[in-house]
């Protein structure tokens, strides 16, 4: 049993975390998490669906025809800080602050795309350049003169720190990503534009574009203020009304940290140290939406208008395929719920589950009697569904699609991260490396059952897919626990369907120089 002081008990109560949760997490530190058991990579024809041109047109049409019958929202995890985008800029400031920069710093041959030198050489190409220039001018500094004089640290500090644009302290959502002829757009603005094409519901009075942003507590007010200022412009531009909601990661999803002996780690004031449980904690935020269909997309995966058509088409392809499969799924669930089916009907439903929903049907299914087969199929079909876009693997980081086996000996399609793999196992490593695709977080979810009730998404989490990492605080080592990832273990027991989408739909911004790529240069 965990020994807690009165102070500890009060702290847990304030966070809405139970003693049982803490004890369970400490036990997980002691036992660790099992590695994923990979059976095979999911590939085209074996777990990943690829549509031809005619099928793409049909699915787009189905989405356009049927979307009026669904309550659709776009869910954007947007709490990520931009500081990681500017890692190299911070390192440059640390190295050269108070020192002379070499005269040939920006005159080297063969300057690499991702280099800090290229950042300064190309600074006029960034959408935030005019804002930076104007901010510096307010304090009597001319950015072009500073570049000529090699006073690059001053420019970097104005970009990153609070006296300037504070880009090192803001979330990615509030950074200028794309420059157009007469204006520039924040990352979040591109999501506002996108939503008008596929995340709308029609009312008697107007078309409503629904979006939900998860935001960090510290940025919530500035986020709301910025969106409120932007909305009128885009409502006039697209003839829609925006319905935008927000949530923060709940404190109750934080996880306790432990020392290297698996004892609770304490802060200098004696309080227990809790850390955010990772993006997997957002399954709670998703669960609280109570929406039928939810598109999920990362905040930084956006493009300017000239490249949006591929995004729109394939969002509709994924949505149209979801509609098609769910409509058939619900028809079969109605039959299964009634409980009186012929052998032919059971066989038809089994084939649909296996061939379209990618549900593994074990060999022992054929030994079941009629009632057992109906119960099995009902349990497999009556779950939330998600369609996940998969991009051909060209070396980008991200979770890959695999056939896996869980602790109950059940085979299913899953998105698996590298951290979940036992890379010392030659067979597992070979399967891991054989993946042809990866998941760019391009997902559409159906979270209502065939009776019109919302699923409790917490019931479909594989709690054995978290992981433990080593961190430090105040110079002391600690171990941190991350909950099952949102598109990994948090959705493990959903119906998972993988569809190939073109790489043109995946344009993340991991470093500031990624904004110099063609996909992020404006019209």
Strand content: 15-25%
Give the CA-based shape.
globular
For the secondary structure, the number of strands is 20
Please report the number of helical segments.
15
Our measurement of the CA-to-CA distance between the termini, rounded to an integer number of angstroms, reads 62 Å
Which class of secondary structure composition applies to the elements?
A: alpha/beta
Helix content: 25-40%
List keywords for this structure.
523 residues, three-stranded antiparallel sheet, 15 helices, 20 strands
Explain the overall architecture.
This protein folds into 2 domains: 6-81 and 270-498 and 510-517, no CATH class; 84-169, no CATH class. The protein is built from 15 helices and 20 strands. 34% of the residues lie in helices and 19% in strands. It is globular, with a radius of gyration of 25 Å. The mean pLDDT is 93. Strand 7 and strand 8 form a beta hairpin. The chain starts with 5 loop residues before the first helix and ends in a 23-residue tail after the last strand. Helix 3 (53-66) crosses helix 12 and helix 4 packs across helix 8. The protein has 523 residues and is of the alpha/beta class. The strands form 5 sheets. Strands 2, 3, 4, 7, 8, 9, 12, 13, 16, 17 and 20 form an 11-stranded mixed sheet that branches. A 3-stranded antiparallel sheet has the order 1-14-15.
């Amino acid at each position: 049993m965990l020994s807690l002081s009165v102070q500890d008990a009060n702290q847990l109560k304030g966070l809405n975390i139970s003693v049982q949760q803490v004890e369970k997490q400490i036990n997980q530190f002691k036992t660790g998490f099992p590695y994923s058991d990979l059976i095979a990579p999911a590939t085209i024809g074996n777990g990943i669906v690829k549509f031809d041109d005619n099928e793409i047109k049909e699915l787009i049409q189905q989405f356009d025809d049927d979307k009026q019958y669904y309550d659709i929202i776009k869910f954007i995890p947007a709490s990520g800080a931009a500081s990681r985008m500017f890692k190299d800029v911070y390192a440059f400031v640390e190295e050269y602050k108070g020192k002379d920069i070499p005269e040939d710093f920006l005159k080297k041959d063969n300057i690499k795309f991702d280099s800090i030198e290229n950042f300064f050489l190309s600074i006029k190409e960034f959408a935030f350049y005019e804002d930076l220039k104007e901010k510096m001018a307010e304090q009597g500094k001319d950015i072009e003169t500073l570049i000529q004089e090699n006073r690059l640290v001053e420019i970097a500090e104005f970009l990153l720190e609070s006296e300037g644009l504070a880009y090192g302290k803001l979330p990615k959502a509030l950074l200028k990503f794309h420059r157009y002829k007469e204006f520039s757009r924040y990352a979040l603005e591109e999501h506002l534009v996108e939503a008008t094409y596929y995340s709308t519901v029609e009312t008697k009075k107007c078309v409503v574009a629904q979006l939900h942003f998860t935001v960090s507590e510290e940025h919530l007010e500035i986020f709301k203020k910025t969106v409120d200022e932007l909305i009128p412009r885009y409502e006039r531009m697209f003839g829609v009304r925006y319905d935008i909601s927000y949530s923060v990661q709940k404190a109750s999803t934080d996880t306790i940290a432990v020392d290297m002996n698996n004892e609770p780690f304490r802060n200098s004031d004696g309080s227990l140290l809790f850390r955010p449980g990772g993006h997997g904690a957002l399954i709670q935020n998703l669960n609280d939406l109570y929406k039928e269909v939810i598109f999920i997309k990362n905040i930084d995966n956006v493009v300017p208008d000239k490249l949006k058509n591929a995004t729109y088409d394939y969002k509709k392809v994924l949505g149209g395929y979801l509609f098609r499969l769910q409509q058939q799924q619900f028809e079969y669930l109605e039959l299964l719920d009634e409980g009186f089916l012929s052998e032919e009907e059971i066989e038809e439903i089994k084939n649909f589950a296996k061939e379209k929903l990618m549900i593994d049907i074990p060999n022992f299914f054929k030994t079941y009697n009629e009632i057992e087969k109906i119960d099995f199929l009902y349990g497999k079909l009556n779950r939330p569904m998600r369609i996940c876009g998969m991009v051909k693997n060209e070396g980008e980081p991200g979770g890959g699609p695999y056939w896996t086996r869980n602790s109950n000996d059940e085979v299913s399609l899953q998105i698996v991260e590298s951290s979940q793999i036992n890379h010392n196992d030659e067979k597992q490593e070979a399967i891991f490396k054989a993946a042809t695709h990866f998941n760019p977080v391009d997902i559409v979810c159906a979270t209502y059952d065939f009776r019109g009730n919302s699923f409790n998404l917490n019931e479909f989490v594989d709690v054995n897919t978290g992981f433990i990492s080593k961190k430090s605080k105040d110079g002391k080592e600690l171990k941190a626990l991350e909950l099952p990832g949102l598109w990994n273990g948090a959705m493990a027991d959903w119906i998972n369907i993988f569809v190939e989408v073109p790489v043109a739909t995946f344009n993340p911004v991991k470093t500031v120089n990624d904004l110099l790529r063609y996909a992020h240069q404006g019209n």
